[in-house]
Structures are given as structure tokens and as C-alpha cells.
Amino acid sequence: MKQAQGDRAGAARLLGESYAKYPNSRPLLYAHADALHEAGENDQAIKLLADSIRVYPRDAYLYSLQAKTYAALGKRTAQHQSQAEVYVLQGSLPAAIEQLQIARTAGDGDFYQLSVVDARLKELRAQHAQELKDAKR
After folding, report:
1. Distance CA 87, CA 120 (A)
2. What is the DSSP letter of 34?
3. Which of 24, 32, 65, 77 stands 20 to 30 A from 56 (CA)?
4. What are 72-90's pLDDT values in tens digits?
5. Whether 65 contacts 33, CB under 8 Å
6. Is the CB of residue 84 less than 8 Å from the CB of residue 113?
7. Do the Cβ atoms of 79 and 100 come closer than 8 Å?
8. How many CB atoms lie within 10 A of CB 65?
């Protein structure tokens, strides 16, 4: 109701309290992260999402929320890196590879982040090549 009334900060606070009571509830996690983003508290949302992705590394929706939040922060390399993981988890390696190529050229990544992007790009290209090879058999 708070979101419907336009009280985004209140909604984020209330969802944060609810999520603290029920930390294993993914719907509350999703709602809390989204409410933080909607309230403009993107740094808090990124921290929540990073912590949650460590717990649920195969949750494409968390990566999707992370990509949206990085976009709001203007962090293009991280945005495309997160979106690539969404596509990996959805089974679309070509789309993931494309996102990592975009991340590589976004222009705002540091040496460490670009090294991670390059390593993941190499890994996904090899995996995709293997899948193509296996499909021809």
C-alpha cells in the first residue's frame, strides 16, 4: 500500500523489516530489492543483491534486478555483466556472450572487473563452441 501511495522510502523500510523477520522468503527479498531501487537507494539495493546472489547463485531474477540497479547507477560494465548471467541461467549463451562483449567495451570497468569479464567471456565461448560441436554429432 505504501508503494501505491507513493511512499517509496516507507515501502522499502517496511519490506526491509519484513525481510529481516523472514530472511528465507525470496518474494520478500525480490520486493525489498525492488523497493530499494524504486526509492533511489540503489547502493543499498546492490549490497542486498550481491549478498543474496552469493546465497542463491542460480537465481536469474536476482541478476535481473542487479542489472536494473546497476543501470540506474550508470555502471554499464556491471549492468551488462549481470545481464549476461541472466541469459546464462536462461540457457541463451549467444545472448550472454553478446552482453559480455558489450560489458567489455562499456568503458567504465576497472582492470579487475574487465579481467573477470574476459575470463567469463572465454569460458562461455568455449562452452558454446562445445555445445555446437555436440549438436553436430
Report:
1. 13
2. H
3. 77
4. 999 999 999 999 999 999 9
5. yes
6. no
7. no
8. 25
- Would you list the DSSP string of 41-61? -HHHHHHHHHHHHHH-TT-HH
Q: Could you tell me the pTM of the whole model?
A: 0.92
Spans of the chain below 70 pLDDT: 4
Per-residue CA distances from 97 to 24, 59, 78, 87 (Å): 32, 19, 14, 9
CB atoms within 10 A of CB 55: 12
Grid coordinates representing 8 are 517509496
At 32, list the grid cell.
525489498
Measure the CA–CA gap between 122 and 137, rounded to whole angstroms: 23
Are 105 and 69 in contact, with CB atoms under 8 Å apart? no
Determine the Cα–Cα distance for residues 15 and 29; give it in Å rounded to an integer. Answer: 8
